[in-house]
Amino acid sequence: MSKTFWTEMDFTVFELPGLEARMSALQNQIQPKFAMLGDRYAPILSAWGKGEFFAHIAKHARRTVNPPSDSWVAFAPAKRGYKALPHFQIGLWKTHLFIILAVIYENPDKKGISERLQNDIKLLTALPSDYIVSGDHMKPDAQTIGEVGEEGIRKLLERLNDVKKAEFLVGRHLKREEAARMTEEEFLAYADETFETLLPVYEKVAGQ
Q1: CB 150 within 8 A of CB 159
Q2: Helices (DSSP H) in the chain: which residue ranges?
Q3: Tens-digit pLDDT profile for residues 108-139
């Protein structure tokens, strides 16, 4: 039987009390998997011809008391820093795995991104109905495109334009139980498919 990529224990890392214990488990258990994903997907994303992508594993270096509630590896066409750019993330909360395209509050082009996406809203409404959208990367909850519809997506994009701290995330959530059941091959195929589906949205967000 093929081995799984993720395990239930990967998700329970985010239930460990205390910064030191959680960071130690993150570094020893999860970050090596993020590094493997970085080695796989940075070249794949670069091959799209939209710029050379680099992997950035979240270090949570500024934390001194509160342990992180989630963690991720991000992909962006920049060697140093990714938060000011549209970027992809593969990451975990204790409840689920996420693969997303993210525009977060540091991005200086949020108004332009909002306008481009609103002018081509079908790029988003045509995504599979179980894909999620969210306006805050700090919260685990999100709604599916099927739930919010075009009106809900437009509200998120209007907020992205109007509110300084607003964000826009689109992608997929996978419950921890489902992720822990997937073989490595199944998970990588799932991630491949997600990135390919989000590519047209990335092109629009990046103004390409």
Answers
A1: no
A2: 8-12, 19-25, 31-46, 110-119, 122-125, 145-162, 176-181, 184-205
A3: 999 999 999 999 999 999 999 999 999 999 89
- Express each pLDDT in 33-45 by its tens digit: 999 999 999 999 9
Which residue matches tokens 């009106």?
151
Domains of the chain are 8-205 (3.30.930.20)
Sheet holding 54-57, edge to edge: 54-57, 70-76, 87-93, 96-103, 168-175, 132-134, 143-144
Return the number of other C-beta atoms located less than 10 Å from residue 158's C-beta.
13
Distance CA 85, CA 103 (A): 7
**Is 115 buried (19+), middle (13-18) or exposed (0-12) by CB count in 10 A?**
middle
Determine the number of helices (DSSP H) and then strands (DSSP E) in the chain: 8, 7
Return phi, psi of residue 25, to 5°. -65, -40
